[in-house]
Amino acid sequence: MRAGKAIVRKSLRRALIVAGAIGTVLAVGLTTTTVVNAVSTETEKNRIESYGQTVTVDGRSMNVVITGEGDQDVVLLPGFGTASPALDFGPLVADLAQDHRVIVVEPFGYGLSDGTERARTTDNIVEEIHDALQSLEVDRYVLMGHSIAGLYAIEYTNRYADEVSAFVGIDTSVPGQPNMDTVFPTGLLAAAKNLGLIRLATQMTGDGLDGLDYDDRTRDQMSLLSNRNSLTPTYLDEMTHIRTNFADAAGTGFPAGLPVLLFVVADNAGNPDWIDLHERQAAAVDDGTVIALDGEHYLHHTHAPEIADGFRRWEAGRLLAAD
Known about the structure:
Elements: H1 2-44, E1 53-57, E2 60-67, E3 73-77, H2 85-88, H3 90-96, E4 101-106, H4 122-135, E5 141-146, H5 149-159, E6 164-170, H6 186-194, H7 197-205, H8 216-229, H9 233-249, E7 260-265, H10 274-283, E8 288-293, H11 299-302, H12 304-316
Parallel strand pairs: 3-4, 3-5, 5-6, 6-7, 7-8
Antiparallel strand pairs: 1-2, 2-4
Helix pairs in contact: 3-12, 4-5
């Protein structure tokens, strides 16, 4: 009996020693990633290059980039969490800017724009983007956006219907699409970033830009801005509001008289109804068109020429020129 108890005590001591060793390794590892992340974040600030120009919105600086000339202004809005909209849209901007003036707006928390404590509701985001354009005296334009920008664009085009001549979506979000009621673990995500785990994961998985039309310098800048902007308080607040922003948009659509062109991923494995959702959205306006493209969600990464040329052909049949 005593021998059995001794064996148990010995095994328990070993388990505690092993657990302690594992805990020590984890603590040292997390301390290391935390320090590396803090030092890298501070060092990288000086490597980020400025681009575009800033306008003051709600007392803060919002970055915008204007490229090209033409009779028609195209305002580009990013998908959720895009580290640097101006650089991310680069190939598409270069094509469109051959005969359009292209204005990329980097909302608060994106690109070189400031962060904000203001709630990331659709209403606030829409108002801030509009204020930025008003500061630039841009008052007649095609609104073009990727992903969640499609959700914000519904509110935007209804509120500022006299300014927007058309909407062009790049695999845009649609009210009523499934799985948008998720409650994200923002606290855990913030902790993971502060501990340097997000930086470590990115280094292990890569930036996802291999084989795309970005030079090394641009890729480096996109990586730096991703490290800076990902999972900031502004980013996490917008993530928190995704659920409520979609709920608030339920049953809404673009103004009936607004021409709408939607470039959509042809085969969305996670949502077999993806094309149908967009076709219904297009059918709800007087002039709606859906163009399916083989590819993944970031269509402008791989199909910039097709998007630009498709837009030109579609635009040519409509009176969209600025007043």
